[in-house]
Amino acid sequence: MSPSIARPSRFSPRTIGIAAAVITVLIWTSFILIARASADPARGGLLTPLDIAWCRIVGAALILLPWGVYLVHQDRARGITNASWLRLSPLSKRITVSVGFFGGLLYALLAYSGFAHAPALHASVLLPGSLPLWTALLAAWLLRDRITPGRALGLALIVLGDLLVGGLSLLRAFDGGSVWLGDLLFMSAALCWATYSVLARHHGLDAVRATIAITTFAAVTFVPMYSVLALTGVVQAHIFTAPLKELLFQALFQGWGSVVISGITFTQMIRYFGPVRSTMITAVVPGLSAIGAVLFLNEPLHWNLVAGLVLVTAGILFGVRAATLKTAEQAVLQRASA
Asked: What is the pLDDT of residue 142?
């Protein structure tokens, strides 16, 4: 075959886009179920929530840190010397620290700690459900994004859904138990990820470089400190006593799967479907993870959880529809003024 003739791609863009969407949804759904099964003390988990966060960061760092070194080397070869940190992160120190603190470190610590107290059904509603709410509020504050009446209605539905789940558990706080604490941790974790998302949008960050940067920050700051505290017995940790297969599983799924693979497939999904349709696709995660929690973790499905799940899913879809209409109106106005 002549070298001038391009070899056709084995898979079409549509096939790649659909595959990326399926993988992203499966990993996001599995993250909630596996994290709860691993961090819940009542299920005999071998690792603490901070142990799981350590495995997540170490697993992701094994791939992303060498990738970061390669990108920094390429940048320096092109004469770009001020846009890296420790020659590991392909972003500047200021940006790496800011996005890494919220998206790489604090999110993982809060989310996994939440799974030690609250069931996966609560996480199904509060983690993905709170994310659009926090993101919209932060974007309105920091980026001066306007919240349209349609988006406001969608956010109101999300707030009602979150209150049905987290609010009722908070009212039962004085009856004993710590489910309310897990709910607060889930919502705080969603706030951290929303902060990272808004910062990434504000700085116009590339998805791969941003993922490498947040992993670099967590690996440089948390991993050495936690390892020392675990070795000296200052914190109750099992990363040096747990079976190797458990550590490898968490590193592979939480690090390679939840951070690296889903980061790449989510970016690929946005390239094909666009951000609005992609958000509609990921809106199925709360429902799928809730069904999985009932089927695989035998968690009870109370009326307030069902109502909260319906309201949150409807709020996400309503907000996405409002964003779609706004984008269409802007496109019409641009064509009219051309």
From this structure: 86
